[in-house]
Design brief:
Two copies of one chain form a homodimer.
Chain A lengths: L16 H16 L6 H8 L3 H7 L3 H10 L17 H7 L11 H9 L5 H23 L5 H22 L4 H15 L26
The first copy, chain A, binds a DNA duplex through helix 3.
DNA sequence: CGTTATGTACACCGCCCTGTGTGCTTACGG
DNA sequence: CCGTAAGCACACAGGGCGGTGTACATAACG
């Protein structure tokens, strides 16, 4: 615990205030939303004085953006890298979300902040594009006729399931998975998921690193 | 303009304050979101004193719920009743949204309010269920094998397009429409949309009146 | 006409929000 | 062991919020 974190300027020392703040953000922003979580409450939960918080982040906006950037990628993380699955299975595994998932925080941030130019909104946009690109890559690997289209379609299904789960208060991901299966089978010419790895050309168009849901 | 509106108790007289408030809500809540629109600003836009507003609505919560209830059903309204289209065409027409649509306000309300028991959240839930039921009815009319499933799937596509349009700031409804076409063709055994009007039994399970997007 | 419901103007309350100023304590690192 | 910086406690500023109290104006209907 001697030298674990560095501030934005690269200072030394510190007993983990920044990490505690971000950790509390993860919990509170997800549970209560961004707008309904005040800095007072957040600092109390992080056991951090408000003064310290504002020395680490210039304002709540920056904190929100960093919260999205550091969002625990527990949902989709690793799905794309699982080598024990065929590409087709990987595409479908993206819809196996644990039922404990509250809601995709990127959609929540975009709606709550309501400003497309907010740093967090920009990041949410980039992230969603990156997920679609990753899906497209996997679709290409699976031999889809139009990988970009399939990737975009599957991304839309994920967002639809997330939004609908929130509004209806009921898990909508199984429905999305069923649609995904249909789309995948329709998009792959030879629907035999029998090749562990075929053409891996991947003239990839997705340079962005991708994390969670 | 003599007797146009009646208050919650059914009183008489009035020069349209309530309507102006709701009209201003339509505009401001959509443009700025619910939480970012204060009652002061709303009353100023409606040219209504704050006192009057609070005589018509017990609080902002009630106003928000009524705003959702009176939401201008310009997007999906009438699509289900168009007799000049086959059921299949009607299902697809639901995805022809004008590009001016900001975002489905029901999703916005559910995310912003963040309380599933809020009156507006409850109404949003009912509304989404009603739309799915309507889609299911039309799917049944079109001869789908599993109308309920197809209705739920199409509803998910609509929500996904709405959410994704918001986050990406780019129209996602064409993608959703393409998926819908695949699903519909897959779900209808004889894909000949040749009957102008077939069974109109509609053992409907949707008592709620349905309006917009 | 007068009564009564309706709408208005304006100040006001208490609350919570983001964000600071100030001075004190702690702990690391030389 | 001491300097320095990270962190803390506390109070407070400034503003927007939802919501109200009071006194006055107006329109409808008897």
């Amino acid at each position: 615990m001697t030298e674990l974190e560095k501030g934005p300027q690269g200072r030394r020392r510190g007993r983990g205030a920044r990490e505690r703040i971000l950790s509390a953000s993860q919990q509170l922003f997800r549970e209560q939303g961004i707008n309904r979580t005040g800095m007072d409450q957040l600092c109390a939960a992080a056991q951090v004085s408000k003064r310290t918080a504002y020395q680490h982040f210039t304002g709540k906006d920056e904190l929100v953006a960093e919260y999205l950037r550091r969002f625990d990628p527990s949902v989709l993380s690793g799905v794309f890298d699982r080598t024990d699955l065929t590409p087709r299975e990987r595409l479908l595994a993206a819809f196996d979300v644990p039922p404990t998932t509250p809601l995709c925080p990127y959609i929540g941030a975009a709606v709550e902040l309501h400003d497309p130019e907010h740093p967090a909104s920009r990041y949410a946009r980039d992230y969603k594009k990156a997920v679609a690109a990753r899906l497209a890559d996997t679709a290409r690997e699976a031999g889809a006729a139009d990988p970009e289209q399939l990737g975009e379609q599957l991304a839309l299904l994920l967002d639809g399931a997330a939004a609908r789960t929130r509004v209806l208060n009921a898990d909508a991901f199984p429905t999305a998975a069923a649609i995904a299966a249909v789309l995948i089978d329709n998009a792959i010419p030879a629907p035999s998921p029998r090749r562990p790895s075929g053409d891996r050309g991947t003239t990839g168009s997705a340079p962005v690193p991708v994390g969670g849901q």
